[in-house]
Design brief:
With 147 residues, this protein is of the alpha/beta class. It has 2 domains: 2-34, no CATH class; 49-144, 3-Layer(aba) Sandwich (Rossmann fold), CATH 3.40.50.2000. Helices cover 33% and strands 14% of the residues. The protein is elongated and about 60 Å long.
């Protein structure tokens, strides 16, 4: 359906030159505009875990955190139940492991949450190239790929 509809738009917005080339392989549309989906590297940058936790209100918490970065904690595409089960299994090896879900966290606090986490866990059924992965990489936080 996407391919059929491409020629019916005044403009098509994509996130990369690769995507522009792909869209142009399906249509002769001359208005394919690239608007990159960037990460603010002034906000998302590495910082000390203890300092991030202190700013979040957890100054004495040194337990390992698994961050599940989802806006909607019950979104079936993100598979929150799988994330919870994965952390339960991991607790067999790391009993004090904490699961932190980003639901309800304002975006301006996400750099702190990314830096406070030991790892970021993605269990989505499918994702493109999610901002949370790029933000975690910018903060030098470890990533656990989807399972």
């Amino acid at each position: 359906m996407t391919r059929v509809g491409l020629g019916r738009f005044d403009s098509i917005v994509v996130m990369s030159e690769r995507m522009r080339a792909e869209v142009r392989s399906y249509t002769r549309h001359d208005r394919v505009v690239v608007i990159p989906d960037g990460v603010d590297l002034d906000l998302f940058r590495p910082m000390e875990r203890a300092a991030a936790r202190e700013q979040l209100g957890f100054p004495h918490d040194s337990r390992p955190w698994v961050l599940f970065p989802t806006i909607q904690s019950r979104n079936p595409i993100k598979r929150p139940e799988l994330a919870e089960r994965a952390v339960e299994v991991a607790r067999r090896l790391v009993p004090d492991l904490q699961l932190r879900v980003a639901t309800g966290t304002p975006h301006e606090a996400m750099p702190l949450l990314m830096n406070a986490a030991s790892v970021v866990l993605m269990t989505s059924v499918h994702e493109g190239w999610p901002n949370s992965v790029k933000e975690a990489l910018a903060c030098n936080t470890r990533l656990l790929p989807r399972m």
